[in-house]
Queue: 3 jobs
Job 1
Amino acid sequence: MNLFLITLFIRLCFNNRSMSSELDKNNFYSELNNTHSNSKRVNVNDLVSKMNEDKRKERKNSLVLGAAAVSAVTVFGIILTL
């Protein structure tokens, strides 16, 4: 039963992460399309800043997911020892 809850929790974390990244990508590309339609030039500095922001978000998401996985394994180990 506990293993089922842990796997369900991890699956929910993965699904939320992928869905949120898809939404972020859609917003990112729609912003690019809007700026491109308004002007003929693309500002490279804006693209680089958005890329760095995306990297920070991915790094944060991976840290949260890793912490969740480690805590789930720790809880599972504690339950097994009891």
Note: DSSP finds two helices and no strands in the chain.
Job 2
Amino acid sequence: MMLQMLTEEGWEAYCMDVSAAFLKVVVPESTEIYIRTDPSLRDGTKYTTHARLLKYLYGLKASSDNFYIAVRDVLIQAGFECTQVDGGLFYLHEEILEL
């Protein structure tokens, strides 16, 4: 249906894909997420058995939500609006002035 509207109205559409998307979102300082380190990275002390994440990783429950929030905020600041039907669909309404 969206493609039909685009073609009938002569609108332009763009799609984007972000490589390593979750690695671009910083974990807030108020949130602490730890992972167990690989045994090859440990030096024998208890301080190297776990590592705190500074950015989200693929597979964490909060990763996709926080990535969406970060992208949504950037698009809204750029003037885009989110559709009521699909939270992942944004549009930019530009008024055409006729003289």
Note: The two ends are 33 Å apart (CA to CA).
Job 3
Amino acid sequence: MHPSLGEKLLKVRIYQPSKTAMQAGKTQTHFWIIEPEVGGDQYLESVMHWTGSTSTGRQVKLRFDSLEQATDFARSQQWQYQIVQPHTRRFCPKNYAANFSSNSSKPTHC
């Protein structure tokens, strides 16, 4: 699927999803997603008040095991892509006794 000279190149975003608030672990965050950046007109459906769109690109997400696989695929399709690096979470190991420490007035940072 190579665009002809008159067509616009598809712009995509490559990112690693963050864990949801309902997740305790990071099981579903080790893969990479390619998601198109589509404009498409949005409208409010009059009967049910759902948000509609003239573009179905918002429904498409491609999943890859590594960043290299995702970028190789985007290059093979001649897509313009932007890589969004994941934020690293700082983990501070604590134990239960730290809740009752006499030094509780001083916040401890890792």
Note: The longest strand covers residues 11-15.
